[in-house]
Amino acid sequence: MPSSLAPGATFPDYVLPDQTKTPRRLSDLQSGDPMVVTLIRGFFCPKDRVQLQGLSAFYKQLVVGTTRLVTITTDDWHTTNNLRQQLDAHWPFLYDEDRTVQQDLDIKEYTDTEHDVMIPHTVVLRPDLEIHRVYNGYYYWGRPSTAELHQDLREITRSIRPDWDLTQPALREAWEAGDKGPFYPYGQKSMERVMQEMAGAVDQYAGSADGD
């Protein structure tokens, strides 16, 4: 990773096709919530499979924790779909056959002369694609455990949700006064939109204003 992609920097807002061949913009998929982005080698890599299997089991917690998950691979569309289906994964898999991300972030795995892949990374993002933490997964133990992701996401959520501690008297006063601004999702999104996002219905909300 270039030094500019350090905590506090902004991750590039890539637009790549997903498993349905539909172009997706990362900021649309994030929709103002925390997000985890996994940059993987692809179908052939057993380390990727094990990591993604763990994320598949963890995904239910990400959903109820209003956290987005995106995987980016250099595989083609067909191979990307095979991997996603075999893992029973329910989040967007974006494929980057042109190696835009690999080249842009300067993460070509030059030790692999056969597959032309990315060095695996896991990037944990605050809203607005702000980088919170980057894990280098060239060696498997460099990849985050779900416990580490839980800790990262706790730190992020605590810092971005004013209603983290509902016992604060000022929060109760605001609620009783009809001020829902500090409360999530009431002050930011309709419950309908939140439920659509939790269901992964990206076509219904990506790039649109709330309530559209």
UniProtKB/TrEMBL annotation:
Span of domain Thioredoxin: 5-158
Domain of life: Bacteria
Residue ranges the record marks as coiled coil: none
Protein's recorded name: Redoxin domain-containing protein
Source organism: Rubrivirga litoralis
